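seq:
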Amino acid sequence: MELKNTEYEVDADGIATIWLNRPHRMNAWTGRLHTEYRYLLEQANLDEKVRVIVVTGRGKGFCVGGDSDALSGHSERGGYDSGTKADIARPGFGTSPEFDAAFAYHFGLDKPVIAAMNGPAAGVGLALACFADLRFAVPGVKFTTAHGKLNLPAEYGLSWMLPKIMGLGRANDLLLTSRVFTSDEAQHLGFVNQLFSADELLPKCYEYARNLVHSVSPNSLRQTRWQIYRDLHRDVASSVIDSEHLIDEMSKEEDFREGVAALVEKRSPDWPSVK
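struct:
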């Protein structure tokens, strides 16, 4: 696929970076951007060399929501048009039925996703960040759910995700008012994991990602992610039973033996599954 609104790179450590690349529009969301984003997520998920995915924006914005020109078009046509085609990539689909929907597909990926929020995020841009496993941001940037001021519902699972991330009362404040809040407040609310200066943001995200690559086995990362998001849909007994099954299966793998040996020998693991 020709990339017009995104850029993609994989480094020597197996960290893939997806850049939203519409800086002249603060990376505002369009059907084309969504199509390219899903295509790149699928490529990263299928690439055995990729271990962690970082998503960030070019320029001064992360993603300020739906492009205003596209929104004007929806208004003139009298209805919403996603701008995507039926053959759009389906990354993460097929892992669990609960994940087979727009943006929820992140939960079905094999690899963790880190959102490096380099600037403002609104609406669908905020939803995109919600579906990342971890969120790091620059201090003082503005976020908003945005939908209420456009006569729209909470977009793309925001009404499900925000209460899970920060609790019902705090999420209700942001969802019902569509007010602006800063990344500093977002950290206090538990939405942002950590704040870094603009110069430090990506280096710190890559440092975190490299730690995952070198200290955690690929299958443990994959299965733990799936446990976390499946457990949001099931009871505690089912979670325990599933973990017992996984313990039995994963303790038979070469990576388990290497992990134990590295622990006993007080060294870093050298995962057989990535050789």
